[in-house]
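dude i think i finally got it to work??
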Amino acid sequence: MPEGIVSPLPSQRALGDLVTDVLREMITEGKFQPGEHLRESHLAEALQVSRGPIRQAFARLEEEGHVELRRHRGAFVSTLTKADIEEVHTLRGAIERLAASRACARMQGEGFAEMDAVLEQMRNVHTRPDPEDAAQLDLRFHDIIYAYCGHSRVQRVWASIRGQVTVFLRARNASFPDFLEVGHVEHLELRDALALGDPQAAQDAIDKHISGAYERLKRLNLPDRDPSPAEDRTS
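look at this
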């Protein structure tokens, strides 16, 4: 691993959690490439921790879908597949429809003010943004819906797939750089639908909004399934 790519970790929190957060961020930001081998020894040395927290992080990241553990070979960054996109899209659609139908009656002025602040940031983007920056603006808007849905289990499911959604959005933005044309417009339409206070209108708006990104992702030249042999996995 190149020197300086990560900084030594503080000790205020459990090392396993800290290592997980650092590696998750590096994966979602594209610092590790799909299929790349994550070597325990190199990461432990770079982060100045033992291999135990690295293994804990790998286990967590495998549960989240960021990493694949292969028997006798170690950890590899997950490769984006058509199956991944379909599964995460359908799960996200189910929980976000529920979140939106509940949030539209709970947000009131404060929640919409938070949305408007993000929309203003989107509106003020005048040059083509980096795919990661566009993804983060998009997610910041949707985080508000979940924050006001009043459903802790839905919020936990969203937290568990948010990293994967980040990866998908980045891929979508890199291949279809149309954020200037649709980013602000589509999210404003969603905001206005939520402001109606009608759960069905909120659900319909969510369906329309996230299906657009899904249709673009389906057009990418991705494998149907992970090309790695099943026997390579530890499970």
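The two ends are 27 Å apart (CA to CA).
im so relieved honestly
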